[in-house]
Every structure is written in C-alpha cells, then in structure tokens.
Amino acid sequence: MTEHILVSVAWPYSNADIHVGNITGAYLPADIFARFHRLKGNNVLMVSGTDSHGTPVTVKADAEGVTPFEIYQRYHRRFLDLFVKYGLTYDLYTTTHTENHFKVSQDIFLGLNKNGFLFTQKEKQWYSPSLKRFLPDRYVEGECYICHYANARGDQCDGCGNMLDGTQLINPRAKVGGGALELRETEHFYLDLAKLTPELSHYLNNDKDHWRPHVLNVVRSTVDSGELRGRAITRDLDWGIPVPIEGWRDAGKCLYVWFEAVIGYFSASIEWSKNNNDPDAWKKWWYDSSAKSFYFIGKDNIPFHAIIWPAELIGLERLYENDSTKRLNVPYDVPANEFLNLEGQKISGSRNWAVWGLDAVERYDADAIRYYLTANMPEAKDSDWSWTEFVARNNNELVATWGNLANRVLSFAYKNFDGKVPDPGALRPEDVELINKVDAAFSSVGDLLSAVKLRAALSEALRVASEVNRYLDVQAPWTAIKKDKAAAAKTVYTALRAIDSLKILFSPFLPFSSEALHQYFGYDGKLFGEQKIVSYDEPTRSHEALTYNASTATGKWAPSQLKGGQPLRQPAPLFKKLEEKIAEEEVARLHAN
Question: pLDDT per position in the chain (593 positions), as tens?
Fold first, then answer.
C-alpha cells in the first residue's frame, strides 16, 4: 500500500560552510531514504531549509562588519550549490526568513500560549558587556555541572547528553567575543515542559522499538527523570521572528531560534503546498495518522527533535482535542547519526580541521564521496574519515567490485552483439539462480533501507555485485564467445539483467552513476526526477529555493525485466580509480590549512 513519508532534514545554520560530517550526519541519509521511498512508489515530501536567524548569524555579521541578512544570504546560496552538486533531492529547501515561516511560527506560539503551555518568567541570563548583548545558551560554554565535561554548552552537554541550565555552568565563558560574563535579569516566555511531561513520557515509552538505542535512551532518561521544567523560547535579539504579543514586539525580543527552526518542517510543508497550487496538500503528511515522519539530524540535536518539537506538537493537539483529524503527527522516528571525526580528531571548523563539502566535490566525483560517507556512516557510534581509507574503498569496492563489473559487461555486449542486449534463448539453471539471487536483494536491501540501516543496505548491495562477479568468473563469456557464442549470449544477457537490477539497488546511494548506467542501457527518460533552483518573491522578503520534480522519474524499486534485442548506448567507465598518493596529499593539505 502506498504510504505518505515525510522526510524532515536538519536545518544548517547560515554562519558556516557544510563539511562532510554534516553531510553524513543528516543530509545524505535523508536523501538516500527519500530516493528509496520514491522508487517504492510512496508519496515522499522531503523538506528543510537554511536556519537564518539567531546569535550565530549576528556574531559573524558583527565580525565582518556586514548585516545578518547578508551573512544568511551568502551561506544559503552556498548550501543550494552544495546540495545540487551532491544530488540531494529536496522537494523544497527553503529558509526560515520567509513570510510563510514567520506567520506559521507566530501562529504556533500563540496556539501554545492559548492552550496554557507557555508562561513568562524573569530570570538571570548571561550577558556579555563586550558584545553588549545577552548570550543564548549555545554561545555560553563551561564545565558541565552533571558530568564535569569541560566544554559543555549552555543548553546541552555533549559529554553526557543532558539538557542543561546555562546559568549553572561551572566557569562559564563566551564562545566568541571574549571578556567576562555577567548574570543580568531579563523576562522571557517559557515552554512548560513540566506540564507536558506525562504525555511526552507516554509518547516516548510506546511503540518505539524501531528507534535507535542511543537516541531513545537519552530522551527517555531525560523525560522520565521528572526534572523537565520550563524552557525559554524567546531571546533578547533583533534578528529573528518578533514575539507576536503586544508590548513584546518592540522590546527587542524574538522567538528562540531552536523553537522556531523545528517549526520549519511544518512551515516548509505548507510553503511547498502553496508553491504547487494545492494549499491543503501538506495535510496528508501532518494530519493523516497513517503517515510517517522521519527526522534526520546529528546526535547533538536529539533533544530538540525528540523532546522539544514533540512537546510543541502535543501542546498544539489540545487545540483540536474535539477533532482527531486535526491532530498534528509527532515524529515517527528520529534516526539521528553519531559524529564523524577526521583523521582521528574531532572535526573543527574554527581550526579548519574539516573536509569541506564544496571543496571536496571540486576534486572528487559526488558519488565517490557519497559512497564513502555511506559505507562509513556513523549510525551507531562515531566513525572516522580517513583519506587512506577513502582511496582504498573507492578503488577496491566502488571501482573494482561495482564499476568494473558494469563497464566490462556493457562494453563486451556493445562490441560483440551489435550494440544490443543479446537474445539468450532458454536460460540455464545457473543463469536463473543468479537472477533469483539478485531479485531477492530487492527485499533484503529494501528492508534495511526501510529500517534506516543505510550502511548495511549498501553493504548488501555490494555483496550481490560480488555474486555477479563470481558468476562471470565461472562462465567467462570473453573466452566462451570464441567457441560457443550462444552460450556467451546467455551469460552476457544474465549479467546485463543483473547489472540492470543492481543499478536500481545502488541508485539511492549513487544517483549520478546510476543515471549514467540507465542511459547506457538504452532507456529513455531520467531514472530520477529533476532539480532546479527557483526564486520566490513575497511581500516582505524574497528567497531562492531548491525544488525537486519527482513526476519526471522513470525508476522503480523492482527487478529488471530486460529484453533481448534492446539497443545499448556506448558505455564509459562509471568511476575513477584514485592514485594512492592522493591520501598523503590530502592529509598534508589538512595540516597546511
């Protein structure tokens, strides 16, 4: 049965470029998952956008002597460029700086306030005299008062995973700007998490067997501890969405970026519907209880997506308690990845210890990077980007096991069978056995993809490719053709049919090479849909957005039905073999920078 699948992808801050840790942490897993479900024929809506607001943007703007708008626009355009080059198929990639997002965020704020889940309170917060502003929790660092991790943030500790009260940090310091910090009194709106705890606990303790343990354990322990309390959802800031309450609009207070950024999944769905001239289309993913929503994020953002956002949605349900058709869906799964390190060290943008996405794709094919990031994906524990391993996996797996298989069989068929798929006649038992093995992989690989076990799914596809290589080693059509062309034709047809199926199995991971292979097989039309960047003008602001048109796709998650006699096109190698010295050069580049 066709399903509605919402693929919600982490919103990158518009204050820094994207590195490979970000890509494998959220953006690539989401794209692989979305592509698979589109091939399955499900109704996929993949949304995200640039997180345009908050102190990170204003701090960078101050440092450069430009406006926050200029900073946001610069990085938003670079994000769009990167996503196109890596083939990330957002149905809509927008920004939080749109009229639509402002309105939706303010409506949700007012709805939670009406339902009694917000309250105001005066509390002391850290103030930086040198910067002349209050600092959001994420821009205060210090020693965690729970586990004593030295570099905890004011909102959360990466050492123990607990949500924190920034005012209790030991030896607090500003993340940027320097200078002493002072505690000063200010008034803000708070989300009443204590009042929402019973329903949050019920949500997290029921039907969550499909969640990753490192995600579920953290949030369950936080919620079930009974220590959740109010969390400030406004900030003293002039770059963001104004608090929609009389007397607060002109007081220099905005909605907290993490309160309104998670609302972006909802507002982007509404924006996508409007752009497609079907204003109510979003309701199929947000109101239909059979729809499933998946949130692809890094582990540092787990509390915001598995506690704060569900709390907001549960609080809004009360608006519609007499109409079950209007209860917004809470996350079905939050398959957060762990961290990717680099050459044994933590990735650090400030130290330029990173493999930057736009830089890497200028030197290496996107599919080669996608392959390594998936094969090495930190799904259950932190993993490490090693340039030596990148080269080895590219050459020994991507090129040797899969790329060479596809190229040598297609080239042999094109040369020896008049540029067509040979007619095999009646297949032999060994031919049928191989085809059955490959066909069965649509279930095994598909089950792993459905469970968001992407690393294992890629490994299974590669294992099946190895089975085809073993079949060819035994049948050796390049030798058999000299004595028995009919037997060689059966082998080549069987291998081509297997490769045509493998093309689909690999396509969520390797879309560019799979598209090229689709064309070499002589098919018309695109395997996947089309991407484009469009500009939208609104009454108060304009923005560019990345969109995806799935209606132009021809691919299906199903075994090949290749027929003898189908014309082929001149094939070419799918991947490039890399010289081993590249690893040394890249490590030297890292240290030099």
Answer: 899 999 999 999 999 999 999 999 999 999 999 999 999 999 999 999 999 998 889 888 988 999 999 999 999 999 999 999 999 999 999 999 999 999 999 999 999 999 999 999 998 888 888 877 788 777 788 999 999 999 898 888 888 888 888 889 998 888 776 677 889 999 999 999 999 999 999 999 999 999 999 999 999 999 999 889 999 999 988 899 999 998 887 778 999 999 999 999 999 999 999 999 999 999 999 999 999 999 999 999 999 999 999 999 999 977 666 666 678 999 999 999 999 999 999 999 988 999 999 999 999 999 999 999 999 999 999 999 999 999 999 999 999 999 999 999 999 999 999 999 999 999 999 999 999 999 999 999 999 999 999 999 999 999 999 999 999 999 999 999 999 999 999 999 999 999 999 999 999 999 999 999 999 999 999 999 999 999 987 766 779 999 999 999 999 999 999 999 999 999 999 999 999 999 999 999 999 98
Nearest to 253 by CA among 198, 299, 190: 190
Between strands 133-134 and 118-128, the pairing is antiparallel
Classify strands 542-549 and 170-174 as parallel, antiparallel or unpaired: unpaired
Model-level pTM? 0.93
In three-state secondary structure terms, 143 is: strand
Cβ within 8 Å of residue 321, ≥6 positions away:
none
Tokens 């044994």 appear where?
Answer: 344
In the chain, the amino acid numbered 14 is S
Cα(452)–Cα(460) distance, integer angstroms: 14
Residue found under tokens 């102190």: 55
Nearest residue to 545 via CA among 159, 211, 90:
90
Q: Tokens 């990466």 map to which residue?
A: 158
CB 137 within 8 Å of CB 143: no
CA–CA dist 383, 369 (Å, integer): 15
Q: Where are the beta strands (DSSP E) in 11-96?
A: 43-50, 92-95
User: CA-to-CA distance for 117 and 112, rounded, in angstroms?
Assistant: 5
**CA-CA distance, 96 to 102, in Å (whole number)?**
7
The residue among 294, 317, 385 whose CA lies nearest residue 10 is: 294
What is the Cα–Cα distance from 455 to 395, expressed in whole angstroms?
18
| Integer Cα distance of 118 and 557 in angstroms | 46
Give the dihedral of Cα atoms 530, 531, 532, 538; nearest 10 deg: 110
Residue 543 backbone class (left: φ over 0; alpha: ψ -120 to 50; beta: rest): beta
Cα–Cα distances (Å) from 206 to 211, 294, 306, in that order, read 11, 17, 14
The whole-angstrom separation of Cα 412 and Cα 416 is: 6
Helices (H), 364-452: 366-375, 387-393, 404-416, 429-450
